[in-house]
Prior knowledge:
2 copies of one chain form a homodimer. Chain A is α+β, with helices and mostly antiparallel strands. The first copy, chain A, contains 18 helices and 23 strands.
Amino acid sequence: MDKSILTLEQTRIEDPFWFRVRETVRREGIPYQWKALNDEIPGAEPSRCMRNFRIAAGKMQGEHAGFIFQDSDIAKWIEGAAFSLRWYPDPELEKIVDGAIEEVVAAQQPDGYLDTYYIINGLDKRWTNLKDNHELYCAGHMIEAAVAYYQVTGKRVLLDAVIRLVDHIDSVLGAEEGKLPGYPGHPVIEMALMRLYQVTGNPKHLNLARYFVDQRGRSPLFFEEEDKRNGNKFYWKDSYFRYQYYQAGKPVREQEDAEGHAVRAMYLYSGMADVARETGDSSLADSCRRLWRSVVSRRMYITGSIGSSEYGEAFTFDYDLPNDTVYGETCAAIGLVFFARRMLSLEPKAEYADVMERALYNGVISGMQLDGRRFFYVNPLEVLPEASLKDHGKHHVKVERQKWFGCACCPPNVIRLVSSLEDYIASVRGDALYLHLYTGGDLKLSVGGTPVSLKTETDYPWSGAISVTVTSETPVSFALNLRVPAWCSSWTLKLNGRAVTPDLTDGYLTLSRTWNPGDRLELSLDMPVSFVSANPRVYEDAGKVAVTRGPLVYCLEEPDNGKDLHLLRLGAVRPEDCRVEWKPEKLGGIMEITTPGIRESDAGWGDTLYSSEKAIASAPVSLTWIPYYAWANRDPGEMRVWIRKDTISPSA
Amino acid sequence: MDKSILTLEQTRIEDPFWFRVRETVRREGIPYQWKALNDEIPGAEPSRCMRNFRIAAGKMQGEHAGFIFQDSDIAKWIEGAAFSLRWYPDPELEKIVDGAIEEVVAAQQPDGYLDTYYIINGLDKRWTNLKDNHELYCAGHMIEAAVAYYQVTGKRVLLDAVIRLVDHIDSVLGAEEGKLPGYPGHPVIEMALMRLYQVTGNPKHLNLARYFVDQRGRSPLFFEEEDKRNGNKFYWKDSYFRYQYYQAGKPVREQEDAEGHAVRAMYLYSGMADVARETGDSSLADSCRRLWRSVVSRRMYITGSIGSSEYGEAFTFDYDLPNDTVYGETCAAIGLVFFARRMLSLEPKAEYADVMERALYNGVISGMQLDGRRFFYVNPLEVLPEASLKDHGKHHVKVERQKWFGCACCPPNVIRLVSSLEDYIASVRGDALYLHLYTGGDLKLSVGGTPVSLKTETDYPWSGAISVTVTSETPVSFALNLRVPAWCSSWTLKLNGRAVTPDLTDGYLTLSRTWNPGDRLELSLDMPVSFVSANPRVYEDAGKVAVTRGPLVYCLEEPDNGKDLHLLRLGAVRPEDCRVEWKPEKLGGIMEITTPGIRESDAGWGDTLYSSEKAIASAPVSLTWIPYYAWANRDPGEMRVWIRKDTISPSA
């Protein structure tokens, strides 16, 4: 099995697409967010995150401010900065991170406890509300930060601190007599402990992760007992969620559907997959597969966004995927990438990589403005500015990305994912190497104990032409598995210029051989414009299609197509009628799609609101489509992914 | 001008359609609601309404319970009972009403004040929160009840009480020095005072109504001043409504759009139209016309329901008419009927009657179960039971009517409107009689001082054949105006068996002559099945049609068409392909429509959520449509009004 999530080899991503995104994060996102965490962004909601640590360390006076989980923001930022330092060493940034770590660690208590909310407000209350008060969530993120920073820099200050913190947690929580049989209201510590275990090899860390997974939802329900102790104030009591808001209504192995808060669900499932992989627990792996199926076959947007409802930031029910009231939190799409990556480690099937790619290229990077300075929390598939303003049910759908959020989980989450993209490209299983994502650059990793170097050249996702050259200095034997994405129905492959047709298994073309230095594979994935339908059970998309090309979902935006996007439809147009053109100056460089379309109008309707006699006038127009991730980078306006397409009626 | 809203002549409605509804209200609704107001319905939310009066009168101890406007429920019930007694004398009911009035009046204070909330909780606080605390709203409804009961029975107990109450109000509120320059947060007293004025002829009553209309929204804003006095707790402060929630953000003559709480808007506009008619105030009439246009041309559902959003139970913006998250409160559709009726009195134009009819036959009576025992507050045009349960944004959309509501404004409102339908059928202007609604029965009223009797026979709304026979005993000269509904594109008219083609002006066929006893008009309105489109600007209905016949909007319901109604569409079907059949045993007797249709399916899709290659299978089916008002009278399930209809693409 692929034991490691962090491949940590000297992989470099240098294709134009991701290099731009990662440079933006490195140059803009990381410094900007450090300022935000220190309340230095004029006009943005203050974070108070670093200030809380200073107060908790006794360096200044004041109250804890911001959310109860504010500590996690700096943790995620440290982790993102660590990943950035891995591919772009930067002593000045490293110095800042060292300083930040020093501030964080200064707040740690003698017994290892570290959470500014309770340190400031009274340690006597700690561990009394695991369900809602996020101590384990903050701890989890701090562990992830510590592991990443240690792996990249070798520095142990934060690592040693979180090991002490975990010792403390382990002394308080657990199934043993005298401990609280609790688990986190917001998962993340499960996968964090698995990463810590990777570094420490300490079974205590594995066992604690496994305990959190297994204890969750068991009867008697810890959260229910805790609620009783806390006066029975249970926010979701009268909701249909109840404890499934926290994925804790029943043991995880009994959960059939992805339910409740979408980010929590993804983080939990990721931790479950980690534990299943590490321990070979097949029933837990089955649960992961079942929950995966629930998400990707019935509860996921075409952009890889998840969470159909603002209420609870949550899943609703099968095939309920409203485009205009969607939540689609950036963090939830990121969580889906985490989950997909871990399922790939569990079993290399391209369907996991397909979803990972779908989320990455669409619902994740849509969360960040092209300049890296503004962020979406919610990623809608249909926006009408007036509705965001005047329909309270859409008030969460913003037309412009925001500078910062009081609850700023998403911006640093984008940073840490984008900066660690190397870890998502490939995985190794025995003597087989799987290429999941096609990003240009150098890949260096160990396959079955043998060091392997590959150079990938591609203009993906704009082009489906990918060349992979073996750059190892000596011949190496291994099976190279190249993913054929689900969106691709036709491909060719050449090895050193000659066509080959290897077996396609679970979505991968497998080439098992001894590779010589300079061996060159040329994979050509057909990348036409596609009109994608949703499963007919998705009632919000009935009669509509989305335009896609390769992994990218496209959208119509007001700056290109004018107002009233609902009046646009696709006629009986075929994908071949579409034009694809590279626009280097537009939105950071995009492949723009134009299609023939139809614009309806209210000509002749005047004041009439309903009529059986008036025709709906329409005229041919050219529709301009841009990649979804690039929307809302110009003047604010309407946007739509799904539009009506004429059905040729059998009775017509 | 038509000075009177209450025609109060001996009009009888005896056609099968309305007789059934009115009998249901009389036999079931009125006794049931009296029990509800006395907390005698097992399993229903207790009202506490009559209990509050008993406490306020010092007959028992206890706290005020229920909403601050709970008094209005008994007022509306008394009014409804009065109207019922007008067409169906019932000494037993009259005795109950007398008793109820005795209980109400017993709570009145020596200075005329009457509001149980403040009587029980302390009179020192009265008149301190006109914006939210509904004293004037309760007073308004009590005035309407008193006037109706006096007009029907000649009994003055409640009338005298409300005259004392109005004297008290007039002593406290007004533009004069020393009075509070306030007005109601929830209008209704405006139109109530106009009805009182009709009975008393006391200019004080007219002037107070006019004051409330004119003072509203004037600067400095009374509500803003009041908020300052009350600690600036203003619920809608951060909403886009602000004071327009109350239609008080600016003077009524400056308001362009129907905004804020839909019921309040309708009651206000109705009062404005009353004042405009009575005083000949043409600028106020213009405001009424402008606000009417805003509602009916841009903000009204095809069912005559209004209020697009649960948030604030309010209007949102032009052409925003979501079918599944709609509010469409029964009271708001009733309010639209009030407004339409008053616009007809202002100027007899059939467009007002068209809307009145649309609301009455659809969004109003949909509010009551066929057996008269359960009620809808919200009247959706699209229901998916799972969504009502699991999508919080649709939690207000109920799949079944409820027994009663904590806030029970709608049930007694249905009762009072249905029981007073006589007052909506016709109006008189000079020597012209306008027939607005076609209901079978006897119409006796005074036209230009001459008593006129007509007998109407019809099976409307099931048939468009209407005969009107002059039953006056002597020849009478007047202009009879027969409305040709906007839904009717073809009609014939015979006078004593011979075809006539009178002028059609403002939607009325005018026949000016001396009518002899026995003269008989036969109007035949073509009533085919129609496929109605919404104005293309209504984005929620793009690509869809509604099926209608005559004034009735039809819907698809799960008991007839199975689940997954979103999979159904109309192909290139023509209205002529539809079958109309009388079903005497179904839903109280309905004309059922069947149309050819198409049912899509997810056959072949399996676990696939998105695909550019899979076709959407479809098969011809027969669709069964029932009148919208009759939905939710069988097993709970899905319902839809608007469904997709194939567009024949010009490029196909």
